[in-house]
Amino acid sequence: MKIAIEAQRIFRTNKHGMDFVALETIRQIQKLDTENEYHIIVAKGDDVCLEESKNMKIIVLSSFGGYFGWEQLVLAKKLKKIKPDILHCTSNTAPYFINTKLILTLHDIIFLEKRDKKNRSIYQNLGRIYRRFIVPKIIPKTQKIITVSLYEKNVIKNFLNLNEEKIVAIYNGFSNHFNVKKNPQTIYRKYIDNDNYIFFLGNTDPKKNTQRTISAYAQYLEKTPKQEAAHLLIADLKEEIIDQILRESKIEWIKPFIHASGYISNNDLPYIYSGAKAFLYTSLRESFGIPILESMACGTPIITSNTSAIPEIAGEGAILVDPFIIEDISSQLIKVMEDKEYRDKQIKYGFERIKLFSWENTAKDLMKLYNEVGKS
User: Whole-prediction pTM value?
Assistant: First the structure.
């Protein structure tokens, strides 16, 4: 078969979750499948992180009119020339005017759900508007919809009133470079000048629960001698946003303990995890949660949420808190930081849990689906 895979953003320097899912899965397909012909279609970017092989061609398309223009005009035009048997779009959306079998990876439908807080990012708000417009129009054109957990499969199926056979759950994996690093300070010192720190991946998306999580950290500080207290390293959040949150929560006094690193490259992340005393992943809503596996693989105890797909991925043995209750987050943070036996138990549990997930398994499930759709 001739299979086209849309992977628009995998060449951009500052990659995020969906980009890595596409990239790592494609890398595994490249190793495993020597029969089908693949056309990987990407936008121009500075990080050329994938090379062509005998049966895998990379097609780089110039951007036009932003994300919408690239997908609906540039990509659609190229597909008419390629004429693939299957098109797999990997990041929630797809071109509307296509005449080929379509597989859509719908990581989640958060953008269709009501939210109680507005996102502070204009870019993310525009993306939400585009997805809310295009996804309902694309769904009827799909042969199969992929999502990343059983939880999200049920959410999508019920919300969009889909038949059971229309949608399939294929778990994500985690990259092999996420493991315990020796001398992690050689890297993490680029982002924080303190060896005693807690790590938090926060951003402006309301689902990340940033304000409650920072407030929980403030409660931890209140109950911990200051000379012993771990600092908080926050990635993906600008300092002015953090300052605004501190003012709104009336906890400006914790500012000396906060470190805003900005974007942390994927190559540096294992060192950040390995150096951290704990990792906070207290989201309100996740369809999978790759950072859960990354943290576990690096031997870092994780405090995460009891909501959405998170318990499905983290497992029953993980530290699961109610992310809406600040005291629940802070009490578990204090326990992890003070109880060595409890901490060691979580680290050991994490190493066992990650054995259930890999990008190779993801790729094998995806290749099986390609063959099913190709024969239909």
Answer: 0.91
